């Protein structure tokens, strides 16, 4: 799609692709970088003003090699995505018996979060699982659970990539290490 737009419009930029593709802006950046790196696109300018155009090489062997490289990269990313989705499905299968009621006490919610956070989870994942807003989970519930949850970034509580895991999991790992 990126190459088709570059061909039809002669030049494309990141903003144009954001409106044309249903992808996250960082994914669009990675695609543009990869296409530039393998020589299919030429970048002109810097920062927000960068535009991309098709390279002038029309050698079919070169294009075929670059296409194969791009296909291998996409296949590797697809395999990684499939593995991640399969792992998430396995985790969620264990939680299928948990029915999330519309109304529940904070204690019930804390118990459910403790079970759900056997693996590292973001506040967004917890909120989606509980059918609550991220703001509510982040501001009201997670601060109450600081003794029950480990933080991936304990020094920075509001880290943008903060994840939470039940301390019970951490204790099991340390106990298993002592027994073995």
Report on this model:
- The chain is mostly helical and 180 residues long.
- It is 57% helix and 11% strand.
- It has eight helices and six strands, in the order αβααββααβααββα.
- A three-stranded antiparallel sheet has the order 1-3-2. Strands 4-6-5 form a three-stranded antiparallel sheet.
- α6 (123-130) crosses α7 (134-141).
- The mean pLDDT is 80.
Please outline the helices and strands.
Blueprint (H helix, E strand, L loop, with lengths): L1 H8 L2 E2 H7 L4 H13 L3 E4 L6 E4 L5 H35 L11 H11 L4 E2 H8 L3 H8 L7 E3 L11 E4 H13 L1
Helix pairs in contact: 6-7
The biggest beta sheet is recorded as: 3 strands, antiparallel
Rounded to an integer in angstroms, the radius of gyration calculated over CA atoms is 23 Å
Mean pLDDT: 80
The helix fraction, in percent, is: 55-70%
The low-confidence parts are: none
Strand tally is 6
């Amino acid at each position: 799609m990126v190459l088709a737009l570059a061909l039809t419009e002669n030049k494309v930029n990141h903003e144009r692709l954001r409106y044309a593709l249903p992808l996250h802006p960082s994914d669009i950046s990675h695609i543009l970088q990869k296409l530039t790196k393998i020589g299919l696109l030429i970048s002109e300018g810097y920062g927000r003003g960068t535009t991309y155009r098709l390279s002038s090489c029309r050698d079919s062997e070169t294009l075929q090699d670059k296409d194969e490289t791009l296909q291998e990269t996409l296949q590797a990313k697809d395999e990684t995505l499939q593995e991640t989705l399969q792992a998430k499905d396995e985790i969620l299968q264990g939680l299928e018996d948990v029915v999330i009621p519309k109304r529940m006490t904070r204690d019930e919610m804390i118990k459910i979060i403790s079970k759900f956070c056997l693996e590292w989870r973001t506040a967004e994942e917890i909120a989606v699982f509980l059918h609550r807003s991220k703001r509510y989970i982040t501001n009201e519930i997670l601060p109450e659970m600081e003794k029950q949850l480990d933080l991936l970034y304990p020094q920075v509580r509001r880290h943008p990539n903060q994840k939470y895991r039940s301390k019970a999991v951490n204790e099991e790992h340390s106990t298993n290490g002592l027994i073995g």
